[in-house]
Amino acid sequence: MGLIQIDSVNVVVRSQELPLFTRLGVHPRTLINDATNAGELFEYWVHEACYAPIELRPYLRWFMAADHRWKMVSELQSRRPQFLDEVLARISADGPIVAGDLKQRVGPKGTWWDWDDGKVALEYLFHRGELAAVRRPKDFARVYDLTERVIPPEILSLPTPSEAEGRKELLVRATRHHGVGTFDDLTDYHRQRNPPCRPLIQELVEEGRLIETSVEGWSKPAYLHPDVTRPRRIEARALLSPFDPVVWNRDRAERLFGFRYRIEIYVPAPKRQYGYYVLPFLLGDELVARVDLKADRSTGRLLVQSAYGEPGIDEAEVAEELASELQLLAHWLGLDAGVVVKRRGDLAVSLSAATRQNRL
User: Fold this and answer.
1) For the segment 258-268, what is each residue's pLDDT rounded down to a tens digit?
2) Rounded CA gap, 163 and 196, in Å?
């Protein structure tokens, strides 16, 4: 999938862990941290905050070097012209820090997204590639350090591709990760701007690095990677995180699966249609249901707050397969009291019965 989106939501498990469970099933939950410590992954703003394969980093240097016109940084440099250098010097001398170590707030604390001078400086230097970051396990805070102390030297020593080369590599990778996608799908994957990519997509086709094609029912051209495989059938069973690449582009999910999906975390409770933290359920090559899940760690239970099936499904089959997947998830999370299904949603009764049978 190329990218693992990072998010602090921890209703079931930290969001970046779910896509790995989707693809690997039960596995060591230290896997991401182990890969980061081994220099195989790094964190950066790609799509959103993401873990990405370390070999991708040189292709993002053009973005790191670009002038993104941060208003907060301009104001900071106007007030404290030496502050960025002071932050770098402190980290160089004293080692890695978190934003709270600088304690540079100016004036009273404002809204929750308010950044103080220290946070602005650290995020800007991180964005520029002058600092790199890992996550502190206990609270998941970013720990900032000099790039050369985090990123392997063999990556830092690689030549810097041009902006065009970097953008083209991102488009090719996005196509490989998607399997098939429109131009908008491909630019969205790494959150590239469309205008500078328009001439590049045709260049990639002419170079044979992408294949232009069409998808029945899609109004726009689509693109394939030359190495794409087309299986005769897909045997899949998986719960998808809201931040999984399969569904993070809601328009694409609707085009592919006829599945309208919106995350309702920020929707007031009375206005939610399906629930707070809803995961789509993939069976075969279709999204067949959705469940609102919560890990009740105090009681060791995985709570299914609601369960809804899609029109036309085989309800008994979906309930049985979903019950098995939920039991596997509860086992992986160490929720030994098992799965509890509440009676909300048109699939809840069947899922509850299947869960009891599965437990027996």
Assistant:
1) 999 999 999 99
2) 10
